[in-house]
Amino acid sequence: MIHSHPDKARAFVADDERAHWHDKALWFVRVKRDRGAATVPEWEALRTAAEGIKAHTLSRLGAYLEEFEAKAAANGIQVHWARDGEEHNRIVHGILERHRVSLLVKSKSMLTEELHLNPYLEARGIEVVDTDLGERIVQLAGEPPSHIVMPAIHRKKEEIGELFHEKLGTPKGLSDPTVLTGKARVHLREKFLSAQAGLTGVNFAIAETGGFVVVTNEGNADMGTTLPRVHVASMGIEKVIPRLADLGVFLRLLARSATGQPVSSYTTHFHAPLPGGELHVVIVDSGRSQMLSEAHRRKALSCIRCGACLNTCPVYRRSGGYSYSYLIPGPIGSVLGPHRDLAGHASLPFASSLCGSCTDVCPVKVDLHHQLLVLRQEAGEEKLIPLGKRLGMKAAAFAMARPGLFRAGGRFARWVLRAAPGLARFGPAAVWLRGRELPEAPRESFADLYDRETAGKPEERS
Amino acid sequence: MGKVGLFIPCYVDQFFPRVGLATLRVLRGLGLEVEYPRDQTCCGQPMYNTGCSREARPLAERFVRLFAGYEAVVAPSASCVSMVKLHYPELLGGTDEVRRLAGRTFDLSEYLVDVVKVTRVEGEYAKKVGLHRSCHGIRELRESSSSERMDAPFDKTRQLVSQLRGIELVELDRPDECCGFGGTFAVTEEAVSCMMGRDRIADHVRAGAEVIAGYDMSCLMHLDGLARRDGTKLPIVHVAEMLEKARLSR
Questions:
Q1: DSSP code per residue over A286-344
Q2: Do residues A135 and A211 share a domain?
Q3: Do B55 and A393 make contact, defined as CB atoms within 8 angstroms?
Q4: Nearest residue on chain B to A28, judged by CA atoms?
Q5: A27: nearest Cα among B194, B203, B205
Q6: What is the rounded average pLDDT of the residues B52-65?
Q7: Can you give the pTM of this predicted structure?
Q8: Does A354 contact B47 at a Cβ distance shorter than 8 Å?
Q9: Domain containing A443: what range?
Q10: How far is CA A419 from the centre of its chain?
């Protein structure tokens, strides 16, 4: 396996201080989310409503997308359809080329990350600047985002000071977040002022109005779409919702789930191009309709990318975004990646203790831990489970189907553990024993005690 | 009432027989007729959670055969019960027999509270106790509310043990974070699993717990294995053992 989660996770955990720092930073966000959610008495009803709206929309997605297209076109928005990343990138490049764009400012978009838009445009001579502070940090560092809402959450402020010193020429040794943000602000203002086009993602597209909504905390999407005259918005086909009235359900859930805020700082509604400008929406499939066609995968398309399942995941918090082979890390990424390419992400369905915290925290009730369990069965069917594990399970199942063998084998194993405990290190418990002790092996099993208890004989302490 | 079938998970049978015995005594103490089908082995959860449904299926089928005749099936393990209750129908196809069994299989705490309707517990357990509520009890069986959902808080296990004289249930910083056992996860993702477990233990120690109590020996075995390796004095106890000498009444 080229990229295995356990190996990357082991390396992350090895730096105990840093792993705990990462865990605590994200747990802090989870606690803020809890406080935010607790202020809404109808929180669980909102989750149920959001789940229902998404399920309904996905059941007639084509119709809603076409309604959106027609309404958007009537508003003066130019709508494009892209089957995959290649087609999407070609369309975006075509628009930029027509306007002789040499600098594009982008607000946060996991979709363009998925479609590798930045390298595509850079290879064609266009400078692309990510303007979300966290995204700019990872862009300057030459890294992908390690979290879908907080892309640079893995970086400490001292490291960001160092990076800014190296890339932006700020004084050495800065680590005050306000000072660093101020430096980034000056740097980004220059980019906003000189860019000829802006690109954003889409949080929600509304079929009824033909408008769409972009949610940010930094106002960077607004800067990037009001200064340049050309605005391109990229959206996956799953981003459409039927009515404007549905939007409130999602907005109330989204900000609280993501960061605990009652509302994000900027919720911008786009309905038409700027006077004298152009507004393009590129609607991308890129594997989504395949997921839609399979009932057991469909629900994952409801995700609104709040990141709550990452923040709550005890494994993500302790292994970091880069331990996941798919670009979206954490529980939702461990579902989306393998749904697309199971063989390429075979270790991800197993990068979970199946504790179910992700499922309970999800604002649209994606059954994340259950989908991971289903993906494990698919991995088993396709023989993507390591051979040792598969044979171990076969052997265990063979013994467990034969009570006599199970009882005799158990008795023997317990005898060995008592007589020669050192031997355990060479058996199947070797990995367990690296950091843990085995339980003490009792002389009698429960079956033995049961017979005695039922016969009314006194218990023999072992 | 008809007979109760006692479901003792394979690793409890082999490594924690005292927990099985305590469960048996708690149930018999209530005047119930309890029987232990001797041919039971494993419910198939380890195989199923590892993605080996082919290996899990025959074990699930023989489990259904062995336990079909009982009015209720009770186990001292929320995790194994969740396998039967929630996952047998998807693994075996939802036949009537499987559904009937799924609906009648209970973890000890929920059986005592929901079916027997125990409201009073008279007994003693004079210790500072950290209650480890395992994930499958919380988020699959819903034996208690989860910290993620904004439902009214409840906890069936706490409802029982909190009545014991002298008990002090300590408050944890993270009341329902996973301990990191997770079945074969404990081995496949050994590094993260151990870190999760050590963090749980640290939370219990900080809260002043003298003992960790729970309703899943698998989580407790993992936590105990870590505590013993690290020289932390934090013994484990199953809820059944805490209730063994108490008088339970409706």
A1: TTHHHHHHSHHHHGGGG-----HHHHH-HHHHHH-GGGSSSSS-HHHHHHHHHHH-TGG
A2: yes
A3: yes
A4: B174
A5: B203
A6: 97
A7: 0.96
A8: no
A9: 399-455
A10: 49
Same domain, A275 and A419: no
Judge whether A461 is closer than 8 Å to chain B, CB to CB: no
Are A163 and A140 in contact, with CB atoms under 8 Å apart? yes
Q: Which residues contact B153 (CB under 8 A, 6 or more apart)?
A: B144, B145
Answer yes or no: do A183 and A283 share one domain. Answer: yes
Which residues in A lie closer than 8 A to residue B17 (C-beta atoms)?
442, 444-446, 448-449
pLDDT digits (tens, 9 = 90+) for B123-180: 999 999 999 999 999 999 999 999 999 999 999 999 999 999 999 999 999 999 999 9
> pLDDT value at position A459?
55
Could you tell me if A319 lies within 8 Å of chain B, comparing CB atoms?
A: yes
Average pLDDT over residues B27-45: 97
Same-domain pairing of A157 and A259 = yes
Domains and CATH numbers, chain B: 4-115 (no CATH), 120-249 (3.40.50)
Instruction: Encode pLDDT of A155-179 as tens digits.
Output: 999 999 999 999 999 999 999 999 9
Could you report the predicted ipTM of this complex, rounded to two decimals?
0.97
pLDDT above 90 covers what percent of chain B?
Answer: 98
Both tokens assigned to B150: 């904004």
Tally the domains of chain A.
Answer: 3
Q: Taking CB atoms and an 8 Å cutoff, what residues of chain B touch A43?
A: 150
Strand partners, B124: B165
A430 touches chain B (CB under 8 A): no
Q: How far is CA A386 from CA A8, A347, B64, in A?
A: 17, 10, 30
pLDDT of residue A1 exceeding 50: no
pLDDT, residue A426, reads 83
Same domain as A90, residue A2: no
- Inter-chain CB proximity A435 and B196 less than 8 Å: no
Domain co-membership, A249 together with A333: no
